Amino acid sequence: MFEGFDFDEFFKKITGQKILIVGDVMVDTYLWGSVKRVSPEAPVPIVSNIIDEHRLGGAANVALNVKAMGAVPILCSVIGGDDRGSLFLDLLEDQNLSDVGITVDDYRITTQKTRVISGSKHLLRVDEEIESRLSKRLQEGFIEIVMNLMQTGGVDSVIFQDYDKGVVTPAIISNVIRLANELNIPVLVDPKFRNFSSYRDITLFKPNLKEFVKGLKIDLKKTDIDRLVEAGQKFREQQNQEILLITLSDKGMLVVTEKEHHYLPAFERKITDVSGAGDTVIGVSAICYAAGIKAEQLAMISNLAGSQVCERSGVVPVDREQLRSDCIIIAETGTLS
To answer: 128: which residues sit within 8 A by CB, 6+ positions away?
Structure first.
């Protein structure tokens, strides 16, 4: 797969790429504590010695992964004019990420996911969000901002990171894809359910298995590789998508193109937390595609990156140097062991 592949040249080539990311952003809040007893009021653990931490989540985590790979993210989303929105902007500033594509709407709230964790055990998650789609007025203004950035920003790839929180709408999807195709900019999509069939004429579509089977209204398991290939090839052709990349959690990844398909088993890792792995996969995939590498190589590198972040607690970005080292080991030995 990597015969003759120059990793030094590849990592040099991806440095400085500009990746425009359109999608739902959020604040990921972590309450880290310890559990020493069960509540006398109900059979639930009591978490004490709390330390709270706030991180960028959703499409903003894709931006962090793009940045970690040495590329330049251009994040486009809508947040609320609330305290969490202000916190989100502060977190952007802390990470030296631009807010040029961020719209503030006083009539929405900023999504926040709060996770309660003891040690490496995830005890509870509380979501505070609004899922209604942007108003027509807001959509028109947002589309104008995104399209202007695409026309003037020297963009190498566009990512839709769709979490069904209302920022990504059919009108935004169709306008962005149309302009991207006119400008010959590849479009990569990490879908959810509501807009699943709206992504036509794109470069790469990356559902997980749950999203894929629900979107197609079929019943397949992650071990049904041959049937997944058949269904994937049909869907890819119907939607005019160049690459279909289906993530299969602990079973790895399936990549389907017009001429070939490849099943890539998962790498053996000490899994701590799978949160945010999809963000990593789509971000790394966009960078790999813009660098001009083969679909199978793209899948392998993004598979490695996604598995890497599962070794750490919480939503975290990829480590570029570790990824480079892992790629070289795989190229030389065929395994990480």
So the answer is: 84, 109, 111, 112, 113, 114
Question: Which residue type does 232 have?
Answer: G
Q: What is the pTM of this model?
A: 0.94
Alpha-carbon span 164 to 131, nearest angstrom: 7
Please state, in angstroms and rounded to a whole number, the distance separating the CA atoms of residues 125 and 300: 31
pLDDT digits (tens, 9 = 90+) for 131-170: 999 999 999 999 999 999 999 989 999 999 999 999 999 9
Say if residue 167 is exposed, middle or buried (CB neighbours under 10 Å; 0-12, 13-18, 19+).
Answer: buried
pLDDT in tens, 3-45: 778 888 999 999 999 999 999 999 999 999 999 899 999 999 9
**Crossing angle for the helix pair 170-182 and 136-152, nearest 10 degrees?**
20
Calpha distance 13→178 (Å, rounded):
27
Phi, psi (degrees; rounded to nearest 5) at 20: -90, 130
Annotated active-site residue in 28, 162, 273, 279: 279
Please give the Cα distance from 246 to 167 (Å, whole number).
23
Length of the chain measured in residues: 337
Annotation marks residue 279 as catalytic: yes
| pLDDT > 80? residue 335 | no
Q: How many CB atoms lie within 10 A of CB 23?
A: 26
CB 144 within 8 Å of CB 11: no
- The yes-or-no verdict on residue 111 having pLDDT over 80 is yes
Instruction: Name the CATH superfamily housing domain 7-27+57-111+129-333.
Output: Ribokinase (3.40.1190.20)
The arithmetic mean of pLDDT across residues 40-69, rounded, is 93
The ranges assigned to domains in the chain are: 7-27+57-111+129-333
Give the mean pLDDT of 158-187: 97
For 290, phi and psi rounded to 5 degrees? -65, -25
